UniProtKB/TrEMBL annotation:
Gene Ontology MF terms: structural constituent of ribosome
Native organism taxonomy: Bacteria, Bacillati, Bacillota, Clostridia, Lachnospirales
Alphabetically ordered keywords of this record: Ribonucleoprotein, Ribosomal protein
Protein name: Large ribosomal subunit protein bL28
Record carries keyword Hydrolase: no
Length: 62
């Protein structure tokens, strides 16, 4: 699974506990998109989470 190239957000692991307290392993995955962005004046393809896209941390290429 890819990480966000801007904020380094990746998979988080933990234990999901049901109402009856049965426990199972769980992964929480970020919403990562491949985006063409402007980096130092050149277009480059980056893996970016939607939080960084929404907060305008990335300038998208046309």
């Amino acid at each position: 699974m890819a990480k966000c190239d801007i904020c380094q957000k990746g998979i988080h692991f933990g234990i999901q506990v049901s109402h009856s307290h049965r426990r199972s392993n769980k992964q929480w995955k970020p919403n990562i998109k491949r985006v063409k962005a402007v980096v130092n004046g050149a277009n480059k393809t980056l893996n970016v989470c939607t939080r960084c896209l929404r907060s305008n941390a990335v300038v998208r290429a046309n």
